Amino acid sequence: MMINPSIDQLTNGGQFNRYALVIATAKCAKVVTDDYVAQRERAEKMIADKKTDKTIASLIDTDIRDNKAVENAVQRLYRGDFNIIFPEDNGTEHLK
Questions:
Q1: Would you kindly state where each structural domain of the chain is located, as residue ranges?
Q2: Could you count the other beta carbons within 10 Å of the beta carbon of residue 12?
Q3: Cα–Cα distance measured from residue 71 to residue 56, given in angstroms and rounded to the nearest whole number
Q4: Do 57 and 39 touch, CB atoms closer than 8 A?
Q5: What is the pLDDT of residue 96?
Q6: Each residue of 22-76: pLDDT tens digit?
Q7: Please, are residues 24 and 84 in contact by the beta-carbon 8 Å criterion?
Q8: Which residues of 59-92 are buried (b: 16+ CB within 10 A; e: fewer)?
Q9: In the structure, what pLDDT confidence band is assigned to residue 3 with cuts at 50, 70 and 90?
Q10: Closest Cα partner for 68 from 20, 40, 28?
């Protein structure tokens, strides 16, 4: 199976490591999932309040609805919608 974009494209030719890519993808996928949940809750409320006669699916963005969260996250990272930011290395470790 061909993965598009490739790992080299996502890591900017090795500018940062795969571990950073995995962490960034997971965090971005969480944002995508949270966005889906918010849109679905908003759609369900609109239907319950009889403010629309559309289906839940039609009220949710198609890319969020039709693709998996990780796939959306990878595409958003590749397009530059999300960026990987590294903390400044001042010799101390921080847990966040």
A1: 29-81
A2: 10
A3: 22
A4: no
A5: 41
A6: 999 999 999 999 999 999 999 999 999 999 999 999 999 999 999 999 999 999 9
A7: yes
A8: bbeeebeeeebeebbbbbbeeeebebeeeeeeee
A9: low
A10: 28
